[in-house]
TrEMBL record:
Belongs to the IS21/IS1162 putative ATP-binding protein family. NCBIfam families: IS21_help_AAA, PRK06526.1. Residues 103-236 form the AAA+ ATPase domain. This is Putative transposition helper protein. Keywords: ATP-binding, Nucleotide-binding. SMART domains: AAA. GO terms for molecular function: ATP binding. InterPro entries: AAA+_ATPase, DNAC/IstB-like, IstB, IstB_ATP-bd, P-loop_NTPase. It comes from the Bacteria. GO terms for biological process: DNA replication.
């Protein structure tokens, strides 16, 4: 018995030194199962390591999702494709693999309010986090405030460099508020710094033809669009607002 106790203490020490808490927690349970089922030493080792890797990947995903600053957790599994019939399911399924992020490509979701653009943006960001990509989310006005603050402090180049560690930036709700020319130029610097280097996902209620109204200048808007769409999947979503439909259905059911 004391030999087993000594072995357990040694494993406790070694797993702490190696920072493998899952192995520390489950080695004895799996050892009992291995003896009962007649596993080989290799099968037992593989089972232990698989448990550790799975837990570590799950913890890493949770950390990346928290660090992304999503306003809520939205998944593709929860998305109502039956309402948003114009959304191409096959294209979204491909984007869910996150292979476009490895290539530094972009995704642009265009459409009126309430058709699910933000939901899809967050859901694809969460898929990216599951595929081990660092993600950062903010609204267009939030990004404007971040860039303006960095520029005013004289550290815009450092901020743009820092943002490169995020393989995916999500800019939500372009078009809801117009920007002045200074802010438009800051957005251009952000897009230019990411060009073919890191991915951007944008949602907008404005078609490209009206981005000049958003960025105070048709030339700046054209330069932004040119860099964004060069390597991009552009999805235009049509239809009625899901929120408005839900409200109408509630009112109808109450009557």
């Amino acid at each position: 018995m004391s030999g087993n106790d000594d072995l357990g203490s040694q494993i406790e020490y070694l797993t702490r030194a190696l920072k493998t808490p899952t192995i520390r927690r489950c080695w004895a349970e799996l050892a009992d199962r291995a003896r009962t089922d007649g596993w080989s030493h290799e099968q037992y080792l593989a089972a232990l390591l698989e448990r550790q890797v799975n837990d570590r990947e799950a913890n890493g995903t949770t950390l990346r999702i928290n660090a992304a600053k999503f306003p809520a957790v939205k998944t593709l599994e929860d998305f109502n494709f039956d309402h948003a019939r114009s959304v191409p399911r096959d294209v979204i399924a491909h984007l869910a693999t996150s292979t476009w992020i490895a290539k530094g490509e972009n995704v642009i979701l265009l459409g009126p309010p309430g058709v699910g653009k933000t939901h899809l943006g967050i859901a694809l960001g969460i898929k990216a986090a599951h595929h081990s990509y660092p993600v950062l989310f903010d609204t267009a006005t939030g990004w404007a405030a971040r860039l303006t603050e960095a520029h005013a402090a004289g550290r815009l180049p450092q901020e743009l460099k820092r943002l490169r560690r995020y393989r995916l930036l999500i800019i939500d709700e372009i078009g809801y508020l117009p920007f002045d020319s200074d802010t438009a130029n800051l957005f251009f610097q952000l897009i230019a710094a990411r060009y073919e280097q890191g991915s951007i996902l944008i949602t907008s209620n404005m078609p490209f033809g009206r981005w000049g109204e958003v960025f105070a200048d048709d030339v700046v808007a054209a330069a932004l669009i040119d860099r964004l769409v060069h390597h991009a999947e552009v999805i235009t979503i049509t239809g009625d607002s899901y929120r408005t439909k839900t409200r109408r259905d509630l009112i109808s059911n109450d009557q």
